[in-house]
Amino acid sequence: MNVSKKIVLHFTPKAVDKPVVSHLIRDYGLDFNILKASISPGEEGLMVMELSGEQKAYDKGIRYLQESGVEIQALSQDVTRNEERCTHCGACITMCPTRAFSLESKTRKVHFDNAKCIVCELCVRACPPRAMELHF
Amino acid sequence: MAKTIAEINEKIKKGQAVVVTAEEVIDIAKKKGVATAAREVDVVTTGTFGPMCSSSAYLNLGHTSPRIKVGGGRVYLNDVPAYTGVAAVDVILGATAMPEDDPKNRIYPGEFKYGGGHVIEELVAGKDVKLVASAYGTDCYPRKKLETWININTINEAVLFNLRNAYQNYNVAVNLSDRMIYTYMGVLKPRLGNANFCSAGQLAPLLNDPLYKTIGVGTKIFLGGGIGYVAWHGTQHNPSAPRTENGVPKRGAGTLAVIGDLKQMKPQWLVGTSFLGYGATITVGIGVPIPVLNEEILQYTLVTDADILAPIIDYAEAYPQRKPDVLAEVSYAELKTGKITVNGKEIPTASLSSYPKAVEIANTLKQWIKKGDFLLTDPVARLPGVESGIKLKSLEERPLP
Fold first, then answer.
1. B135-163: per-residue pLDDT in tens?
2. CATH number at residue A108
3. Residues of B with CB below 8 A from A92's CB?
4. Which of B30, B105, B41 minimizes the C-alpha distance to B294?
5. Mind listing the pLDDT tens digit for each residue in B172-225?
6. Which residue is closest to A123 within chain B, CA to CA?
7. What's the ipTM?
8. N-term to C-term CA, chain B
9. DSSP states of B197-226
10. Active site residues of B
């Protein structure tokens, strides 16, 4: 069975110096698509990627990453909407390149589909009441 | 059959008034006809919830011992400067004020995360706010420095006083240039990448009383979750804007100045707001009841999104250079489909004003009136109408000597 998940990799300063992603691809036969990366030698790093492959290989790959000192977070935990601050105006809708926001036609409320989010962060600063929150 | 506000208030007191929202009244009139609807419906409630920059709060801080005269000195509330050019301990906090050390647009586009609007929201939420003041000292007000916390519940007055709110219609903003622009109408992508609009449309107060037949000075309203009043016509009130045959303006036209006790308002309806690259402001909730005095007044409340046209304006060139160019007119019904066509290109639309919240405000006001908690007021003066000849003036510059 194949799986494809968007994950966030947190690199400790030590892990930054190791070619973990290269090992991950070569040794576990996984496909990846980097959505975002911010890594500098000797500092903490962060990478958002879509990782896909056969379930068993995927699980082994994730275990390898964790053993190498990389913390893993599911992407859905990373960009969230503060429901108390959201006014459902809709300013985010046209900002999002992956159409993660949509209007419910009857109530005209804004729906946020986390699964479509690629953490580009465009909505975060374009949201007038700043209801979109990043948790890295 | 005409009704008076006094008669409607008698029904409200007895819990017998028929109150519907400006959205509901459209269907009622369709089913029952205008004459019957006008006879049966007593009040139509409207609502709007959008960013309104010309908003402010004035506070009386109370006197310290020894006394300080912050008037003519400096006052910061959570580091945001307030206006002090009034008496000893009165200050005015504007929604767009920014801390002096905020980088603003020096790092472009600036984030404007925290400004006067956010301080107003925190005050209303009952949070303590840091007050730092400096003064020049006088014989009767010797103190020169003050640092303390204030709380809305322990200062004398806290009053929301907004110079221009509830714009009767507004521009649709687009960007014809080749670069991203950051405006008070939101982020506008290059080459007609998106279009932003800002009106509650068929629910908006002044679009349901387009000729100001019932809304006037002294009209009691829902303001920021509490009770407020129309204090005056708002700044830039422009009744001479072009209108359709049914009197509905096709451009930004009338505006309201509103006032109310901040202490009984709610942070949910006064939300600190940030526009990337533009500034901080506040999103204000306003609801106005329209007494159905006769058939004509009911007829005006039947306006639908399809009947209201707004001008599409280029915010890269026409707006900043104050050119009158309008690319096209478009109805709110079209805007709310999520896309419009401009210069042959289909572009996605988004709203800055929240329609679901406008519905909630109109419904809340409806419940207040139905329960008998909220009586209507007779305006004490009318807002300037078309007959006033008032037109929006521009500032024509003159050279200084």
1. 999 999 999 999 999 999 999 999 999 99
2. 3.30.70.20
3. 350
4. B41
5. 999 999 999 999 999 999 999 999 999 999 999 999 999 999 999 999 999 999
6. B187
7. 0.91
8. 63
9. E---GGG-GGGSSTT-SS-EET-EEEETTE
10. 140
Residue at a domain's end among A77, A97, A119: A77
Q: In terms of domains, do A71 and A8 share one? A: yes
The residue range of the domain holding A122 is 80-134
Nearest to B187 among A85, A88, A95 (CB): A95
Q: Spell out which residues of chain A touch residue B351, defining contact as CB-CB under 8 Å.
A: 89-91
Cα-Cα-Cα-Cα torsion B265, B266, B271, B272, nearest 10 degrees, comes to 70
Same domain, A36 and A69: yes
Within 8 A of B203 by CB-CB distance, chain A residues are: none
pLDDT digits (tens, 9 = 90+) for B329-377: 999 999 999 999 999 999 999 999 999 999 999 999 999 999 999 999 9
Q: Are residues A60 and A109 in the same domain?
A: no
Per-residue pLDDT of chain A (136 residues; tens, 9 = 90+): 788 888 888 888 777 777 888 888 888 888 888 888 888 877 788 888 888 888 898 889 888 888 888 888 877 667 899 999 999 999 999 999 889 999 998 899 999 998 888 888 899 999 999 999 987 6
Which of B191, B203, B349, B351 is the best residue to mutate to test the A interface, defined by the most A CB atoms within 10 Å of its own CB?
Answer: B351
Asked if the Cβ–Cβ distance from A126 to B187 is below 8 Å, we say yes
Contact B273 A108 (CB under 8 A): no
Give the mean pLDDT of chain B: 97
Q: Which of B113, B189, B350 is facing A91, going by the closest CB pair?
A: B350
**Measuring CA to CA, how many Å separate A69 from each of A17, A44, A64, B128, B364?**
11, 11, 9, 43, 54
Domain match, A87 and A123 both: yes
Put simply, the answer to whether A103 touches B357 (Cβ < 8 Å) is: no
Token couple for B133: 């003041």
